[in-house]
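Thread: "does anyone have the structure for this chain?"

Original post by V.I.:
We have the sequence but no experimental structure in hand. Need at least a predicted one for the grant figures.
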Amino acid sequence: MTSVMWFRRDLRLSDNPALVEACADGEVLPLFVIDPALWGPAGRPRRSYLAASLAALDASLRRRRAGLQVVRGDPARRVLLAAKEVGAERVHVAADHGPYGRVRDAEVEKALAEEGIELVRTGSPYAVAPGRVTKDDGEPYRVFTPFSKAWAAHGWRGPIDAPTGAGWLALADPVDLPEPSLPDGIDLPEAGERAAHRRWTEFRDERLTSYRADRDKPGVDGTSRLSVHLKYGEIHPRTLLADLASRTGVGAAAFRSELAWREFYADVLWHHPDSAREYLRPEFAAMAYDEPGDAFTAWQRGRTGFPVVDAGMRQLRASGWMHNRVRMIVASFLVKDLHVEWQHGARHFLHWLVDGDLASNNHGWQWVAGSGTDAAPYFRVFNPLTQGRTFDPDGSYVRRWVPELAEDPDPHATGARNGYPDPIVDHAEERREALDRWERIR
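Reply from O.Q.:
Generated one for you, tokens below.
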């Protein structure tokens, strides 16, 4: 039997159940579709990283005397054409639980079925697929802690090896792998399955034990930086969880909890697909917000006059990544100091982040905005000065990303000097304004 393996967010060969199923059928066409609906809106950093990840997958396949076949266009048409060209009876995929992916796959499934070809879903990008974990009454969780307990109790199977012995097929006229250009100054991490495993091994062996203590310190290399590898499925969370199973320290427990957060947000989005763009708690849509203007532009460019906020926004533009603690700080500043709706910030993040994941990004923003799950109470307004001094006490993070303050004895202090601007707002005044607006909708 001939099959198509349609890669999406599973750009790896090991621990890929859909690929194993495809190879069990016999001959396999390894396919990737450049979908204009996803490629076009993605920012240049994300497109560049994806292209590098596809090149790495292609290299892995070529070591097996195969090659990734790339086509461009509407998946409902392009997958069908590829399947018909090689005489495939099945198209294998890992299930996509996102709002767009579910609709796209239904359309592909319909187009294939009309030609007698089956779409086979096996596995997902998650240890526990969204929708699997519910309360006793069948209702979904909207609070993290009980979800995480049920998620851990549900469990997951162990990783599996890459398939061997498959016969590989090729298309007559695939397109070349894309080579998008990066904005000046951007330096992206190495992409691909091998890079993901190297990063995990290094983190596991060198920084996992101190993860709980160091993960909130942006000036310290204390996080795993695996988010982008998980985003594109270069490594599966099952692989990480299998390694963590025998580790009992607080660092391992904290990292396991972070994986659960990723799966929690995916589950919430699966149950509430409109929450990708709309308020999960709709009463917050009635709050008064300001339209993005000059202050929003200053926030985007890292010119607010609040050093830790500016360091975070500049790190984003320079690396396609931002430390998670700083993501919360800059999000709170936008929503509660500048009174701009969270969707504007979420879109800016998705444009620049190489690990831009719709569920984690947008529900993280809703958490800060008070309108999401486990929401930080709206009256909890992050003080950017206090946050900077608390989590970057020696100023190393600010000094790295705000060169005007590199030699400053107190880089967290506000005030214009050496080309650095004065604060664009008074935090105390804007905190009172944010709380006043909240009181009006209570």
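V.I.: this helps a lot. Residues 159 and 239 are 6 Å apart (CA to CA).
O.Q.: and The two ends are 62 Å apart (CA to CA).
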